[in-house]
Amino acid sequence: MNVRNTFADITIVCETPEYKDTKLNKFLYHVIIQVLSSATEAFHRGKNFQHYRTHEFVREYTMIAGDCVRIEHYRRQENEWILFNADSLDTVVPLHSPLKRCV
C-alpha cells in the first residue's frame, strides 16, 4: 500500500479546516482512528503510523482491532508517543485533544 493514497477510517479536526486549491489539507487531522483488518493491520501499525507521526498536527492515533476487543491509543506528548491499551468492553479510551473545538 502507498501511504499517500490511503485515508483514515475516522478523522477529527480540532480547528477550522484549511483548504488548498479546494482540497482539504489531509495532514490537518488531529485525531486519526484506524479499524484494523488482517489485510491492513501490518500497514497501519508500520508505514502508516510512521507517516502520520511525522506531521505535527497529528496528536492522537488509535488502532481498533477488527477481530477481538483491543484498542491501542497513542497520544503525542511533546516528542514522545504515549500508549494506552484497552482490552475490555468496560474500558473508556480517553481522547485528549480539545474536543469542544473539534468537528
Relevant terms:
103 residues, alpha+beta, 5-stranded mixed β-sheet, two-stranded antiparallel ribbon, 1 helix, 7 strands, globular
Structure description:
- The protein has 103 residues and is an alpha+beta fold.
- It is built from one helix and seven strands, in the order E-E-E-E-H-E-E-E.
- It has one helix at 41-53; strands at 10-12, 19-20, 23-24, 31-35, 60-64, 71-77, 80-86.
- The strands form two sheets. A five-stranded mixed β-sheet has the order 1-4-5-6-7, covered by helices on one side. Strands 2-3 form a two-stranded antiparallel sheet.
- The longest helix is centred in the middle third of the chain and has 13 residues, at 41-53.
Can I get a quick summary?
The protein is an alpha+beta fold. It has one helix at 41-53, and strands at residues 10-12, 19-20, 23-24, 31-35, 60-64, 71-77, 80-86.
User: How can the largest sheet be summarized?
Assistant: 5 strands, mixed
Order of helices and strands: EEEEHEEE
Terminal Cα span? 28 Å
**Rg measurement, Å:** 14 Å
The helicity comes to 10-25%
- Major sheet: order of its strands? 1-4-5-6-7
Mean pLDDT: 81
Low-confidence region ranges: none
Strand content: 25-35%
Overall geometry comes to: globular
How many helical stretches? 1
Structural class: alpha+beta
Q: Write down how many β-strands occur, each being a DSSP E stretch of 2 or more residues.
A: 7
